[in-house]
Amino acid sequence: MVVNCSFAKTKGRQLVRHVVTYDHLTALETLTMASHNKLVPLVLLQLLIALSVVQSYNGQGLKVGFYKYTCPAAETIIADTTRQFVSRSPTLAAPLLRMHFHDCFVRGCDGSILLDSTKTNQAEKAAFPNLRLRGYQVIDAAKSALEKTCPGVVSCADILALVARDAVATINGPYWDVPTGRRDGRVSLASEALTNLPSPSAKITQLQQGFASRGLNNKDLAVLSGGHTIGTALCVTFASRLYNFTGKGDTDPTLDLRYAANLRKRCKPNDRTSFVEMDPGSFKTFDEDYYNLVARKRGLLVSDAALLNDPETSAYVILQATTHGSTFAQDFAESMVKMSQIGVLTGKAGEIRKTCALVNY
């Protein structure tokens, strides 16, 4: 079995890939035997094993321009469709970005978030963290247009990854080249969404573990959290910070008192329907204001405030808050490329769905 360990970084708007190929079984067996005979330092054996683990997260098989010959107009069709929807309704950008994130954190970026529930299965869409996701009509419209132009070629997983990019770009956020070539998964379970998606009440160690298990580091955690610069959150997702933080009817001491008082006016105890802006005043604009809020103890969710509880993530928050997001756009682009390659299906794995909400039969 050949292992391709790919590392990607963006340079301007050009994705640069560095690929190292190993015959995994042969090399691993050889190095194992050699290490016992002290011919090869143990560190090399450990490196090869580590590289084989990275394989699960590096998006092998993906490349920028995957559809150049099979469907040349694919990315243009998707971009045009996305702009038509998001330009009319800018608030769609946040749920479309979140949809991509939620897809990748459950079974990898395989489009499983797009599948509908059936009589015998509750799909990811039905899980509580996904109930407020919207924008599926954008994916469906892009898929319909693509099926007319090049039927059976472009996967729903790729459409979602490209739509997320184009939605952010439409509201003046960063643009990044998306490596494509994903195929669609056939399994979608609400129970897995509940288990795998980061909780809004997660502490820093929980967030770090969840990101690390998917090949994302502390910087990626701090950067991707910046996606909260757009969108809204239900009161129920942070109500405990306002009314019963330690079970004694108190307020989270890490939350700015004035901000907490304002939130209590918007969110009453046991309110499960009201919502507030994640980034008050600019929740439709992709900018660095999120970090200003977190630095001032006005991050809305426990998971936002948690970024201040680790030296590395806290340093990133302060950097963006004090330099007006000097590196945020580029950092976000790079982390999105990295995230979009988690656990992808390529080659002959999975399928290319005819309809994004249904598996092929």
Automatic annotation (TrEMBL):
Question: Which residues bear the site annotation Transition state stabilizer?
Answer: 98
Cellular localization per UniProt: Secreted
What are the EC numbers?
1.11.1.7
Which residues are the active-site ones?
A: 102
Question: Which parts of the sequence bind substrate?
Answer: 198
Do you know which PROSITE patterns this protein is assigned to? PEROXIDASE_1, PEROXIDASE_2, PEROXIDASE_4
Q: Which residues bind heme b?
A: 228
Keyword annotations: Calcium, Disulfide bond, Glycoprotein, Heme, Hydrogen peroxide, Iron, Metal-binding, Oxidoreductase, Peroxidase, Secreted, Signal
Q: Which Gene3D superfamilies match?
A: 1.10.520.10, Peroxidase, domain 2
Q: What class of enzyme is it?
A: oxidoreductase
Q: Per UniProt, where does Ca(2+) 2 bind?
A: 229, 279, 287
Q: Which organism is it from?
A: Ficus carica
The task this protein performs is described as: Removal of H(2)O(2), oxidation of toxic reductants, biosynthesis and degradation of lignin, suberization, auxin catabolism, response to environmental stresses such as wounding, pathogen attack and oxidative stress. These functions might be dependent on each isozyme/isoform in each plant tissue.
Q: Which InterPro entries match?
A: Haem_peroxidase, Haem_peroxidase_sf, Peroxidase_pln, Peroxidases_AS, Peroxidases_heam-ligand_BS, Secretory_peroxidase
Biological process GO annotation list?
hydrogen peroxide catabolic process; response to oxidative stress
Annotated positions binding Ca(2+) 1: 103, 106, 108, 110, 112, 124
Name it. Answer: Peroxidase
Family, similarity comment: Belongs to the peroxidase family. Ascorbate peroxidase subfamily.
The protein's annotated catalytic reaction(s) are:
2 a phenolic donor + H2O2 = 2 a phenolic radical donor + 2 H2O
Provide the disulphide bond pattern: 71-150, 104-109, 156-356, 235-267
Which cofactor is recorded for it?
A: heme b; Ca(2+)
- Note on how the cofactor is bound: Binds 1 heme b (iron(II)-protoporphyrin IX) group per subunit.
**PANTHER family xrefs:** PEROXIDASE 25-RELATED (PTHR31235)
